[in-house]
């Protein structure tokens, strides 16, 4: 085989070669011979079918298999010639030329390689982390919220009007086009108004009702509602409010602390305040990371850590971004893209910069995860999907099946790994800051001790 290879950069290579007609004929014979051992043809015993008959009857399939094997051999030779290992090849190599000529097939293969990433500058990419101080006022407000949640429910006076955060006890039945639908009926249902447990508009429409009132509530199911027979439909719910419950007052004292901190022996109000302060600190940290610092960190990593990108992976990312965008554009724009190949190409090309950044960050995160031993198990992925589905009022099993069937689980896992890697980097900045503060304290203490000794002399 006449073969030449070239590394375009550290992440991309190209191989050119000619698969000789003679070699291809040998492949055709080998493929036909293998096929003759298993194929059944009337009038011939198994394994005794003449090769000429096999070649004639299954000409196209044999030719396709022979060419495929020849290209695979060429690819393996190219990998050897490039002096790389098979595990360095990333994604599926792309055949960019396949010209059949009398002397053979002129083939060009583009190969993407796992990029080499230098992580020395990662620490310089981590933004400084400063948390806002948790004030006593915030602790007190959270303590009051916690106490209110723990307070028992009591019946409200009969003349009370339903308000947000009240608990309504009511019957309801839903109708679409004056016909009841499955799952749209319940009796003595208890609902906290403002919990958003029901679809938009339902709970707000109940505000102002009194015990004993009847009301028809008109709502529209979301277009993406999990029950397809209800999605996007207008509905009327007939409501009968039986009663209203409100939270009773509860004393904030050591007894409440003991109830809320059963794992702590002799828990008191001071312990509970400390627990709430810790929780508020965690929330403040998570908010700061998610709303500000993670984005800064990602931008810094992209701007600082430079390496060659595998072209094929970037192209695949562009394809995905382009396909996803088709679901968000207007019907007129979609029609234009379908009828004008240049416009479609231009639209796809508009995603190149986004794709390059996404691929860059994915490779950096993967390298950091390997360096720092960050892993996410399949079980953790399923637990996360289950929890989020439950929070959205969806069927967890159906959501998991959807992710499986659409091959989305690897993307979910990668997102979770990225989140952990970025959090770990930001946490390391806190640890460094705390270490510096501690060293300064120790240094100050030593100086003070020396000064005291001198004075005593």
From TrEMBL:
One GO cellular component, as annotated: cytoplasm
Residue ranges annotated for the PPIase FKBP-type domain, each copy included: 165-247
PROSITE patterns in the cross-refs: FKBP_PPIASE
The protein's Enzyme Commission number: 5.2.1.8
InterPro entries in the record: PPIase_dom_sf (IPR046357), PPIase_FKBP_dom (IPR001179), Trig_fac (IPR005215), Trigger_fac_C (IPR008880), Trigger_fac_C_sf (IPR037041), Trigger_fac_ribosome-bd_bac (IPR008881), Trigger_fac_ribosome-bd_sf (IPR036611), Trigger_fact/SurA_dom_sf (IPR027304)
SUPFAM superfamilies membership: FKBP-like, Triger factor/SurA peptide-binding domain-like, Trigger factor ribosome-binding domain
Xref: Gene3D superfamilies: 3.10.50.40, Trigger factor ribosome-binding domain, Trigger factor, C-terminal domain
Spans traversing the lipid bilayer: none
Pfam families in alphabetical order: FKBP_C, Trigger_C, Trigger_N
Protein's job: Involved in protein export. Acts as a chaperone by maintaining the newly synthesized protein in an open conformation. Functions as a peptidyl-prolyl cis-trans isomerase.
Domain notes: Consists of 3 domains; the N-terminus binds the ribosome, the middle domain has PPIase activity, while the C-terminus has intrinsic chaperone activity on its own.
The name this protein goes by in its record: Trigger factor
Biological source species: Helicobacter anseris
Lineage, top ranks: Bacteria, Pseudomonadati, Campylobacterota, Epsilonproteobacteria, Campylobacterales
